[in-house]
């Protein structure tokens, strides 16, 4: 039977373990150990619900037993499609505890993406909740076409055809299960996707645990940390950089914010005395504006992490004076490599770079179009391999020759410069995608939707610099008749199952699209031409 995903070579794993670059425990064991050490300490806050470590660990045990009784079996995949609420954290650790594999999906994903994820992962169950993207009924409709789905579980009001979340928590805790191998598949993350629908990223207990705990050390997170998670928990950034897993694994407290608006977040910072939180650049200006007039006490906040896209220098320099905390820039990817500016870095480094690799074992190459290394300060594509960077996507081996070098380096598609001391600065992308407010949008996927519109003969999607979003998406269309308005495009794309954030921010007309010598759309030329549109 072919392997679903390529692992690191055994010889390399042994070397990583010898030097402490792989975690020897499973992810759920991190929570268990903290519960045994200081069970009465606060672990998780979600709305009015507050759990100390002992209570959280017991609830995880009960839900794990309920899932096993369905049954959800070891190695089976379960799609998590939940907003930031306590059930997300409990379901994640409960699945890990029984050896099942959570698939972390954003609540905002459209039906087309969800159908693709269910088909690729062959998930046996979906855990969902009412709200944006629909609840159990929507998941049930999608799951009806996926023969692998046996159960739909809803963390909300009862819905026909769905199992209520509360019934899982009524189960008696399971007896101790056989210990999982830390090198086992732990969970599946979603890639930003550069061709079509998102790809699944396999992460093991060993690599993800190391990623989380090493990040916690780099970010000054310990048992006194209070992490406010306002970005969607399904993202790698708020999950493991150091995020929910890194903070809980360090004995700190996690506060789940229902949305990233500054009015909501500032109230939680004051109430819970939050010490660290994470944002994408598009959210920073509104936080700075609100901070100038808020009456909430933000004095507990020590670190604001910003990642997912490049933060402009002018905004970066305002963070410290306005919010009264330290800025930490973060540059990473769900596929692995994380970079951080250090908390004691000079201000110029913090405000103008995206940091240095997390691990001494992270290997980084910056290469030109011919694959040769470029000198410090020159732009090139970032290639990387290391103890927590994948060696291939899940059930997508056809991508290996495209996304990985023969010696195992992952082609990130990011265009960066590297300073003499190793600081990375993101200057663009090689891959054809739009980085809109931290959400990676595959141009080809949107173009496919646009080409389905009546009268559209050709379509190209570009990422154009935007002071708020980082990049806004612009659709350039060649049409037989009138140019469709953006609202028409939006309605058509949503009807086809696209996620709302993938709808172009702007729609432009062109008489024709420039082509390369082999007949492909010449986006470099189109981007230059766009400056004059």
TrEMBL record:
InterPro entries: AMP-bd_C, AMP-bd_C_sf, AMP-binding_CS, AMP-dep_synth/lig_dom, ANL_N_sf, ATP-dep_AMP-bd_enzyme. Residues 31-394 form the AMP-dependent synthetase/ligase domain. Residues 445-520 form the AMP-binding enzyme C-terminal domain. Keywords: Ligase, Nucleotidyltransferase, Transferase. This is 2,3-dihydroxybenzoate-AMP ligase. Gene3D superfamilies: 3.30.300.30, N-terminal domain of ligase-like. Pfam families: AMP-binding, AMP-binding_C. PANTHER family: LONG-CHAIN-FATTY-ACID--COA LIGASE, NONRIBOSOMAL PEPTIDE SYNTHASE PES1 (EUROFUNG)-RELATED. It is an enzyme of class 2 (transferase). It comes from the Bacteria. GO terms for molecular function: acid-thiol ligase activity; nucleotidyltransferase activity. Its EC number is 2.7.7.58. PROSITE patterns: AMP_BINDING.
């Amino acid at each position: 039977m072919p392997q679903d995903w390529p692992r690191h070579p055994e010889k390399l794993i042994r070397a990583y373990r010898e030097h402490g670059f792989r975690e020897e425990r499973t992810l759920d064991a991190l929570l268990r150990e903290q519960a045994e050490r200081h069970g009465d300490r606060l672990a998780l806050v979600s709305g009015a619900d507050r759990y100390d470590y002992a209570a959280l660990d017991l609830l995880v045990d009960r839900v794990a037993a309920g899932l096993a009784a369905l049954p959800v079996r070891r190695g089976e995949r379960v799609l998590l499609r939940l907003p930031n609420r306590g059930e997300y954290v409990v379901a994640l650790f409960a699945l890990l505890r029984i050896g099942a594999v959570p698939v972390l999906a954003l609540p905002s994903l459209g039906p087309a993406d969800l159908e693709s994820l269910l088909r690729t992962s062959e998930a046996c169950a979906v855990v969902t909740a009412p709200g944006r993207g629909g609840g159990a009924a929507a998941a049930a409709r999608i799951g009806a076409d996926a023969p692998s789905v046996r159960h739909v579980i809803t963390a909300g009001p009862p819905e026909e055809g769905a199992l209520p979340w509360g019934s899982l928590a009524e189960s008696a805790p399971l007896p101790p299960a056989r210990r999982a191998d830390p090198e086992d598949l732990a969970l599946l993350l979603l890639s930003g996707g550069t061709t079509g629908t998102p790809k699944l990223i396999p992460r093991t207990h060993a690599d993800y645990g190391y990623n989380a705990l090493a990040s916690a050390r780099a970010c000054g997170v310990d048992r006194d940390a209070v992490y406010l998670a306002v970005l969607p928990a399904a993202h790698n950034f708020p999950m493991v950089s150091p995020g929910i897993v890194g903070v809980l694994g360090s004995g700190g407290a996690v506060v789940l914010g229902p949305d990233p608006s500054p009015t909501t977040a500032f109230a939680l910072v004051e109430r819970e005395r939050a010490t660290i939180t994470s944002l994408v650049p598009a959210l920073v200006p509104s936080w700075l504006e609100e901070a100038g007039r808020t009456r909430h006490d933000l004095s507990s906040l020590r670190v604001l992490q910003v990642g997912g896209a490049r933060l402009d220098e002018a905004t970066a320099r305002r963070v410290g004076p306005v919010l009264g905390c330290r800025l930490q820039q973060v540059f990473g990817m769900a596929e692995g490599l994380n970079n951080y500016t250090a908390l004691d870095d000079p201000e110029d480094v913090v405000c103008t770079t995206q940091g240095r690799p997390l691990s001494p074992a992270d290997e980084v190459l910056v290469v030109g179009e011919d694959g040769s290394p470029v000198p410090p300060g020159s732009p090139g594509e970032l290639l990387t391999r290391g103890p927590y960077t994948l060696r291939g996507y899940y059930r997508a081996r056809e991508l290996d020759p495209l996304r990985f070098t023969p010696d195992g380096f992952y082609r990130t598609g990011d265009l960066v410069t590297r300073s003499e001391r190793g600081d990375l600065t993101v200057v663009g992308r090689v891959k054809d995608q739009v980085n809109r407010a931290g959400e990676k949008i595959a141009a080809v996927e949107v173009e496919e939707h646009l080409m389905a519109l009546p009268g559209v003969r050709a379509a190209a999607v570009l990422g154009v610099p935007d002071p708020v979003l980082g990049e806004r998406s612009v659709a350039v269309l060649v049409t037989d008749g009138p140019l469709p308005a953006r609202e028409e495009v939006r309605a058509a794309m949503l009807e086809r199952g696209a996620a709302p954030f993938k709808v172009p921010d702007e729609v432009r007309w062109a008489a024709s699209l420039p082509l390369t010598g082999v007949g492909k759309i010449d986006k470099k030329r189109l981007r230059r031409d766009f400056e004059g549109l």
